Here is the input.
Amino acid sequence: MAPIGRTIKQPQPAIVQWDNGRGKWRDIGTTPWNMWPCFHVETGRNEEFDRAMHAADVSRIEFFHPAKNGRPSTITQDWMLGTFIGLHPITAGPPADKVSLITLDPTMMAAAAEAGIGLRWLDGEKSSMAVRGFLALPNVADSVTINPDQPETIRALLVTLTEERAAGRPAPITWTVIPVPVQLGVSSNMSDVLMDALVDHRRVCEAADDFRDNRPEEVTFHELVLPLVLGHEVEWTSRDPRKGGSSTTVYTFASAHPATITKPYVRGVWRKADIHKQAESLFSGIQLWAQRYQRNGGLPQEASFDDNGDVVGSQEAPTARPIVERPATQPPSARRGRL
Here is the structure.
């Protein structure tokens, strides 16, 4: 009889979170707290991911999580990604273009799980949504200047990828792919924002089919980088009756794919061979995860101050610069050396 042995501890996936501008964070070792929309990832969840982020020279911050729903307030150390990232989403794509169209139909929900999309929206709860994939960090050429807080500069840069380049001329932007799967999770109205980004990515994958040459397979979602940038400043009204219809101003993110897709652009956001093989090997497990997500949810502690849910316990919220007083350029922590 074989010995029982010991189970090997399975690593948790790193969670990419979007702070909508209401969260509070600061550079490590500094006192002032900032309020600034950004993507960030809590450290300590996945050692392999943390090692890869160290190797990529990504800076860290301290992020304040307020007390909420019986949880005490906490401060975590997070990887600061700023307002411009790429993602190779490992999914077959949403079965419909709107979250409500999927969550109201059990058949659609089953199709979403089969496509590898985590989606949940039960009566009395906020919706939550997540996808898994590979994080792609942008590397901008030395001759190029962008302001990540001004997404039009990034969109203009990505448009240049649609143009043919002379032989030997370097690409204006390349991608450092972190070869450890991550989970991008959102909740409430941000579920629609993530859905819109995936729908736009499907448009680009379909356009890329025209440039397959002799390849018979259609272009799948993970084969192209989905560029995500700062979206719009919006005012959302709380659905919680206890909030009395109060509204909150937040920032969203959005897909930055250009309107016209060309073969040079597809080459500029195309995956590497090892990423393709790894995504294909992971997909069956992601489908199982998506099924469990529908039953149990899957979001970690909310990264941002949220206008929904009960706030329990002492907040001890640090004082931070209000969002209307944001500096004109993105703070140093939000800029990696490659930008």
Summary: The radius of gyration is 20 Å. The chain has seven helices and twelve strands. The chain has a mean pLDDT of 85. The helical segments are 47-55, 99-103, 106-114, 151-160, 190-208, 263-268, 273-296.
